[in-house]
Amino acid sequence: MSYQEKSSFVSLFSSILIFTACGIYVYQKYIDGSLNSENVFKFYGGVFIFLIIVGVVNSIVRNVVLNIISAKDKEPSFIDERDKIIELKATAIAHYVFITGFGISMATLVFDVPPLTMFPILFFFGFSASIIADIFKIYLYRKGF
Hints:
The chain is mainly alpha-helical. The chain has one domain (3-143). The chain has helices spanning 3-32, 40-72, 81-110, 115-143. Helix 3 (81-110) runs antiparallel to helix 4 (115-143). The chain starts with a helix and ends with a helix.
């Protein structure tokens, strides 16, 4: 398995783990009834900032660990043109998924759905974009593009 495939698998696993943990936390807050129209924006703003920080730290730690493992295995970790094309295709798909979710979340505001609904949609499509991009990268590497 190549370095890029390993990186995609680890990214997929960590994205699912982070999404699940954060989803459980948000769901518990929703069930507790602690989210109301006064603090919903503050709460989700904090959640999104926390997710950005966790995502950046996760990416740094993941890359360091994978580079240590690939150096130990004496496996090349360079990126060629094929890897760049696969990355660009996966990024394009991730953008399409996220923009679709963004449009749906904005449509909820147009149709007078409470803002409490808009944020979980953004949350879901943001992580779905990451997960779908990683799955697509794994598929392209396995296919041999």
